[in-house]
Amino acid sequence: MKAIGEGKEIDFLAYEPIIELKHINVTFKETDREVHAVDNVSLSVDKGDIFGIVGYSGAGKSTLVRVINLLQRPTTPEAVVKVNGNELLTLSARELREKRRNIGMIFQHFNLMNSLTIADNVNFALRKSGLSKVERTKRVAELLELVGLSDKQHDYPTQLSGGQKQRVGIARALANRPDILISDEATSALDPKTTESILDLLADLNRKLNLTIVLITHEMDAVKHICNRVAVMDNGALVEEGELLQVFSQPRAELTKDFIDTTTHIESSLAVVEKQEIVQNLKAGEVLVKLGYVGETTDQPLITSLYDQFQVSANILFGSLEILQGTPVGNLLVVLSGEPKKTQQALVFMQDHEVAVTVLKSGDKEVKPND
Ligand SMILES: Nc1ncnc2c1ncn2[C@@H]1O[C@H](COP(=O)(O)OP(=O)(O)OP(=O)(O)O)[C@@H](O)[C@H]1O
């Protein structure tokens, strides 16, 4: 069994933080109200991470990432905003402009100029690059090839699909060879298949260019697809942060559980499962349990072992299996039945085999929830 986060922790030693935010507060003061959009957030993104920031609309995600390039300044003095080791808050306007070129951004609505061709939209981002006209043309061709749009260079944005427009956005954002790409709801306007192809492109660019990506989204599916780390934001604050596998397999915050449920459906299935006759009429020695598996545990014939060793049978009422970062993560809703003592022993046996066991309902007093 691979310990949660084991692989990344080894990498972690070799990785250095590329973005360090400490004590970030942003308050917008309006005539009739104050909005505390970011509430004392500290986080660190390592070089090469695809770092997801997930939260519902208004949680403060956009405001927080705009702090990374100081498009939005923190509004309290204790803030630290370090990118590539440089404290941006102390830089002059000219130095800051220079550093900002190291951070590309893509957006939900692409922000392309409809009067310019695709090639010229990308070329526009190179106007202050110091490259000659010939070099710029060559670079534009490279970028369009990188995003799979070489054949569209003479087209105009209105001739492209949403996914193609976002590819232009990505090419433009990468024009000045940034180390960091911030994606602010970049797939939110796209259908699921196109979303997947854009996320695959981002994952590919992360590997090929060692590009660090900060991905803001309200879709846990997107995070699950490509992120190695995730932070959950609610009402301006970070309510949870960690490695994808860790957060998915052992979420702490209720909001995180809600987000995970949008992709596993385990909590919402529980409501249906609880109405089933077998669950309504649990007898002595019968329990409804949620079993959570990570890694190789999923491959072990645990359910079979329960019968062989304890004569406890398992009736699987709902199951989900996700592959996250190449590691299987499974969740099952199961009714176990056996001699009360044996059922209890079976639960302990599973816990000993690194299965997260939550007893949701029990048919007798001997097998108590979460003993
Ligand atoms: N310039 C501004 N002036 C006043 N209030 C603002 C400003 N920008 C954002 N807000 C408020 O700050 C809060 C956080 O907004 P923000 O856009 O950062 O959230 P979000 O999580 O990115 O949501 P969305 O995905 O809907 O953009 C919201 O209540 C928003 O109304």
Automatic annotation (TrEMBL):
SUPFAM superfamilies given for it? ACT-like (SSF55021), P-loop containing nucleoside triphosphate hydrolases (SSF52540)
Q: Which GO terms describe its molecular function?
A: ATP binding; ATP hydrolysis activity
* UniProtKB keywords: Amino-acid transport, ATP-binding, Cell membrane, Membrane, Nucleotide-binding, Translocase, Transport
One Gene Ontology BP term is: amino acid transport
Instruction: Read off the InterPro entries from this record.
Output: AAA+_ATPase, ABC_transporter-like_ATP-bd, ABC_transporter-like_CS, ACT-like_dom_sf, MetN_ABC, MetN_ABC_transporter-like, NIL_domain, P-loop_NTPase
The ABC transporter domain is annotated at: 21-260
> Per its UniProt record, what PANTHER family does this chain match?
AMINO ACID IMPORT ATP-BINDING PROTEIN, METHIONINE IMPORT ATP-BINDING PROTEIN METN
The name this protein carries in UniProt is ABC-type metal ion transport system, ATPase component
Originating organism = Lapidilactobacillus concavus DSM 17758
> What phylogenetic lineage does the species belong to?
Bacteria, Bacillati, Bacillota, Bacilli, Lactobacillales
